[in-house]
Design brief:
Structural class: alpha+beta
Pfam family, one: PseudoU_synth_2
Order of helices and strands: HHEEEEEHHEEHEHEEEEHEEEH
Shape: elongated
Organism: Candidatus Harrisonbacteria bacterium RIFCSPLOWO2_01_FULL_44_18
Number of helices: 8
CATH topology of the largest domain: Alpha-Beta Plaits
CATH architecture of the largest domain: 2-Layer Sandwich
Strand content: 25-35%
Family: Belongs to the pseudouridine synthase RsuA family.
Largest sheet: 9 strands, mixed
Protein name: RNA-binding S4 domain-containing protein
Radius of gyration: 21 Å
Number of strands: 15
Keywords: Isomerase, RNA-binding
Helix content: 10-25%
Number of domains: 3
Distance between the termini: 20 Å
């Protein structure tokens, strides 16, 4: 990867700004002055303005129920330790839902996981007050027609017990599961997200975080 693109992708400067800094001798690669157009390889140490390249942080976080993740909510106050390092949530999980969120300071990840071209699915455990009909999974899997969103993409669903459903969504419209089940006349008592792509919530408890493993990061 060319050095100006590398610096841009790291979120440090624009490509044009990178070119200016390289020309001014303010970028070092493995202790040597960088040259225009040079290639950067894995393991190279890049220093900009005598400051080491940005360290990316990737975390799995169990968002408790009642916590709002949008900027106007109380989310920032509970992740102060990480927020100071530029960490933010990838996507959202509504206030009355709980479960897995990915936190990072890597802006590229947002588009990769939540963008319109994303193939990252998400899995939820949903509890409802009423007894579930055996026909609910088939309705989800054929692509439900809703009043709110129109035709939705097919979603996988499996009944765990009379009041519990496991749902896997490929798309993530706002309050999608709540809308789908509401239009089927079910009352949701709890939604818990347990997986994003290959990332599992595992043994995390509400409010806890853990660093993603190198393998998990590579599969995002």
């Amino acid at each position: 990867m060319r050095i100006n693109k590398y610096l841009r992708d790291k979120g440090l400067v624009s490509r044009r700004e990178a070119d200016k800094l390289i020309s001014a001798g303010e970028v070092l690669v493995d202790g040597r002055r960088a040259e225009m157009g040079m290639l950067i390889y894995e393991g190279d140490k890049v220093v900009l303005h005598q400051k080491q390249e940005k360290e990316y942080i990737y975390l799995a976080y169990y968002k408790p129920r009642g916590l709002a993740t949008q900027a106007t909510g109380n989310f920032e106050s509970v992740i102060t330790e990480w927020r100071e390092r530029g960490v933010f949530p990838v996507g959202r999980l509504d206030k009355e839902s709980e479960g897995l969120l990915i936190l990072t300071n890597d802006g590229r990840l947002t588009a990769k996981i939540t963008g319109p071209e994303s193939k990252t699915n998400k899995e939820y455990i949903v509890n409802v007050k009423e007894g579930l009909s055996k026909g609910v999974p088939a309705i989800f899997e054929k692509g439900m027609q809703t009043k709110t969103f129109g035709k939705l993409l097919p979603a996988k669903a499996r009944i765990v017990d009379r009041h519990t459903l496991r749902v896997v969504l490929l798309e993530g419209k706002r309050h999608q599961i709540r809308v789908m089940l509401s239009e089927l006349h079910y009352t949701i008592t709890d939604i818990k997200r347990v997986r994003i792509g290959h990332i599992l919530i595992g043994d995390l408890r509400p409010g806890q975080t853990r660093k993603l493993t190198p393998l998990e990061i590579s599969r995002l």
